Every structure is written in structure tokens, then in C-alpha cells.
Input
Amino acid sequence: MKTTLRTLAILALSAAALVAAGCKSMPGYPKASEEIPRPEAVLDFNTLYKQNCSACHGDNGRNGAALPLNNAAYLAVAGVDNLHAITAKGVSGTLMPAFARSAGGILTDQQIEVIVQGMLREWGKPAEFASTALPPYASNNPGDVVEGQKTFVAACARCHAADGTGIKSSEGKPADPGTSPDSIVDPSYLALVSNQSLRSLIIAGRPDENVPDWRGYITGPGAHALTPQEIDNLVAWLTSHRASAPGQSLSSTSSTTTSATGKEMK
Ligand code: HEC
Ligand code: HEC
Output
């Protein structure tokens, strides 16, 4: 089965049970035989990434349940400060944990720096984006739901259907199970992701799933890169579907996003 955020949320509950049983039984935690260096002495990017990030963000930063980090467009837009803040402090209300010891995590500041610099060095392509006008990483513009729906139809419907519920065959089953995305307007999915995460995904796409970045969604006549306003509108339209979730506290049209400190999500 393909790991999605939904299955990850279930796995996280069992991981919480493992934490209660002691960190050494956590998946990804070094086995006794590998435990020669003290944990804080590990300063190799690949080892740190594998032990701390790959379970959710995928081996080598791709094909995980959470946003691929091995994505040069994402890294260019997010930039070193956001990467650092989010890795250190996590995203509250989501599965993204805080890693800095000062925030209750398990990594030293030096290890976080190694991970952030490693991602930028191994997966970034700064030269490719040096002369590209990048959309802002975050935005406080609430966006327009009605305009967002129009942009969704123009930019996203070919893969997600016009209402975002996924492309179905005539029998109402997914057209191509395994490759066709599930509904992205399902409140139980939207409850697991922050507005910033949706925004990041729209801006940077998923190279591991052949999803284009903000420059490549609208092709053919009228082809253009999504404007910052269109990105705000898309987030507003997607998050407007949270309204029907019982007990969901996130406001239906707000597109207030994760701040650079990674703390706010409401
Ligand atoms: C238990 C699963 C899990 C682990 C482990 C994890 N992440 Fe995440 N991460 C997530 C999820 C889920 C999100 C999206 C959170 C949201 O909705 O904003 C995320 C978001 C992020 C983002 C922000 C993406 C954006 O929208 O800008 C960064 C950067 C990130 N993670 C880096 C890391 C790094 C580096 C590690 C390892 C040190 C790591 N993560 C480990 C689940 C995880
Ligand atoms: C070329 C096809 C394609 C286009 C165009 C496309 N998507 Fe997707 N999208 C996908 C696929 C495939 C996935 C499933 C990724 C997975 O299952 O992990 C996905 C997943 C998502 C997700 C769920 C997050 C995740 O990574 O699982 C969201 C939200 C999303 N897309 C929003 C959009 C929006 C908004 C647009 C338009 C701006 C868009 N997509 C355009 C193919 C596409």
C-alpha cells in the first residue's frame, strides 16, 4: 500500500506507543550494533536524514507521505531560514515533529544545521533559480475562494477532477488506483495538513509524482506561471472544504500560513 498522510497518521499513533516504550524501539533509531558513535556525535547528512526524516519525507527526499524535500524548486522558495526554523520547531498541529532540543526534540543545533545545509547542497539547484521570480514562501493574504475554484479548474482539474475529489471511472472507482490521487478536498485529509503545507505543495509540485511546479500547471493557450494571488486563491479554495469537518477549528477561508518560525497554523 502506498503511504499517504492518512496512513502516516495511523502509523504515528503506533510510533507514539513506541516512544512510551522507550526511544530505542523507534523505527529508524540505530540498533545496538550501530550504536558506536554517541547520537549527538553523528554529523553526516545522509545518516541524519535517514534516521530522522526519511520515514515521512521518503528515502533520498522523495516518494514519502509528506512533502518531498528533494525538490530544488521547494528549496529555492523556502530558503535556509524557513528550513531551519521548521526543522528545529516542527509544525504544531501536524505530524511534523520539532527536532531542536530547545523545542523538546532529539537533535543538537549543529545537527540541524548539517541537515539543512545537506538538503540545500545535495538537492538544491540555486543556479537554476537565480534569475527566476519566485513566489513568496508564505502569505497572509486570505485569498478568494471563488477565484480559487476557477484557477483549480484551469490548473489542477486534469489530475484531480474539477471538484478535487479525484478522477473516477464510470463505475465511480478511481480511474487508475495507485496513480490517481485520492480526494484532496476530504476534510479528514485537510485536517492533517497546514495551509502552508498546501501552499508549498502548490508552489513546488511533486517531481516524484510528475506534478509540475507553479510555472507548469497552466499550459496551452493562456499558459502562465501561477501568480502569487492565484496561489493564495487556490489555498483559500482548498481550505474552504475544512468547514464541513466536525470539530475543525481552522477557519474556512483564512489562508493564514505557517509563519517563518513554523509555529502558527491557525
Ligand atoms: C513523523 C513524520 C515526519 C518526520 C519524521 C519529519 N517530517 Fe517534516 N513534515 C511532516 C509533515 C506531515 C509535514 C507537513 C506539515 C504541515 O502540514 O505543515 C512536514 C513538513 C516539513 C517541512 C515544511 C514543508 C513546507 O511546507 O515548507 C520541512 C522543511 C520538513 N518537514 C523537514 C523535515 C526534516 C528535515 C526532517 C528530519 C529532520 C523531518 N521533516 C521529519 C512529517 C514529518
Ligand atoms: C499532472 C497531474 C497533477 C496536477 C496538474 C496537479 N496534481 Fe496535485 N497531485 C498529483 C498526484 C499524482 C498527487 C498524489 C501524490 C501522492 O499520492 O503522494 C497529487 C497530490 C496533491 C495533493 C495532496 C498532497 C500530497 O502530496 O499527497 C494536493 C493538496 C494537490 N495535489 C493539489 C494540487 C493543486 C492545488 C493543483 C493545481 C495547482 C495540483 N495538485 C495539480 C497530480 C497532479
